[in-house]
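Q: For a teaching session next week I want to show students how multiple molecules come together into a single three-dimensional assembly. I've collected the sequence lines for a complex. Could you give me the predicted structure tokens for the whole thing so I can convert them for display?
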Amino acid sequence: MTPAFFFSLFLSMTAVCLRAAVIRDISDESLSFSVIIERVNANSSKVLIHGDIVPASTRNADPCTATGCKWPKIGSYVFVPVSIGSEYNDQERSIIINALLTFHNSTCIRFVWRTNQPDFIHFFSGPGCYSQLGRQSRGQVISLQRNGCLFQSTVQHEVLHALGFHHEQVRSDRDQYVTILSGNIIPGQEGNFVKVPTNNLQTPYDFTSVMHYGSFTFSKNGQPTIVAKSNPNLNFGNAFQMSASDVARVKRLYGCCE
Ligand SMILES: [Zn+2]
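A: Of course. Below is the structure for the complete assembly, covering every listed component.
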């Protein structure tokens, strides 16, 4: 069977669930995704870097997209095989699938059900919300813990990591736009704020990115850890969905037709 068949199958299985999942997502997400991820992962037994990224010995950042961690493009589309753990109920499964469909609607990424493809993403309910950066060989996981991580923004965030994207606040040019207040960071969490030599794909620094953490992420004292240089009172890190720049970056990295 062709990838196109799986794409069709994928859509047909999920269309009826779209409305219910979107309503649940918005109503439940009174907290920003970065707060959700930080809170859920605070109790995680998983070793994570940058808050929700599984460390890899061979790859650790967006620069990996220049050396092999992109997903392959076949014709006009980038096919990413996926599987979803049986531990999720129908509503939880719908949230994941509908979040994946937002990529179909805005980019050339096409998630297809995995059969025997060697590289794939498996969604499961692990200890927290986390992902790996870019495509890994022989499969990889995205953990979306039940009762904690199942929101459209969180799914999009972790999927963007798997597509090769890092957090907005660690991008290479961030020092022009934000100040990191190291004195307010929880001791031991400073590594979450280390800048990465990212490829920013000619997109502007974006406070509305679903990849941008909030001002108080990893704060030890209730004071901000990240402030905008243009406006110290700017409230950010509250995205409920991918921003226009998030979408533009996916399209540019993967050469989607504009
Ligand atoms: Zn993240």
